[in-house]
Amino acid sequence: MNCGDIAAKPPVVVTPDATVEEAAEKMITHRVGLLVVVDKETRRKPIGVVSERDLLKAVAGKMPPTTTVDKVGTMGNYVYVYADDPITVAARKMKQNNVRHVVVLDRGGELYGVISIRDLIGERKVLEILAKEWAPSME
Question: What domains can be seen in the chain, in order of their start residue?
């Protein structure tokens, strides 16, 4: 099973000029914990991400709700996988980077989707693959 198989739903996106308030509203409306920040001209080109944690940090830091997401999110250095990567790559990157989401790209670097930890644990077949991958050897 590949990452593209799990990232079947269209990703929820914002542009870098979206406000923290707009991002929070979009997360609530779409029931997601991560928004992909995309280039204003090329909506299939991801340039960053903004997570629930980023928004909480902004609020706790007393940033105004009109602050733009490019000031609070992770721009440029976000965690990603390719759609044709095995799902174990997504799980490994989540663990290594201590994140709950990975962006899924096609091999051309265009946005394909997002995988959340919930997506991984919500699929029995995925859990079986991960268990087999990480199970201690009996040898």
Answer: 3-134 (3.10.580.10)
